[in-house]
Amino acid sequence: MQVIVRENNVDQALRALKRKLQREGVFREMKARRSYEKPSERRVREKAEAVRRARKQARKQAQREGLIPAAKKKPAGTR
Q1: pTM of the model
Q2: Cα separation of 23 and 47, whole Å?
Q3: What is the rounded distance in angstroms from the CA atom of residue 26 to the CA atom of residue 60?
Q4: Where is the composition biased (Basic and acidic residues) (predicted)?
């Protein structure tokens, strides 16, 4: 992974690196590896994640087809 530092702005480069790591799921994996997870717990977690992904995909598809209204977007300036 590579991040370019422009005009000696290390803070901006660090934020970009953190964003990339977040997208790759590195922080989630580090948290998961801190302690042992039983195989049965892992299966339950992965099944729940798959269900969430499927529901989200179905919801987005229904929004595209106009069956349900699209989610309201937040104003750009608020966090």
Answers
A1: 0.58
A2: 21
A3: 26
A4: 35-52
Tokens of 38: 């039983």
By CB atoms closer than 10 A (0-12, 13-18, 19+), residue 16 is middle
Q: Token pair 């300036």 is at which residue?
A: 77
> Which residue, chain included where needed, has tokens 């595209």?
64
Q: Is 54 exposed, middle or buried (0-12, 13-18, 19+ CB in 10 A)?
A: exposed
Domain boundaries, the chain: 10-65
Q: What is the pLDDT of residues 19-40, one digit of tens each?
A: 999 999 999 999 989 999 999 9
Sole residue written with tokens 């590579």: 2
Q: Which amino acid is at 18?
A: K
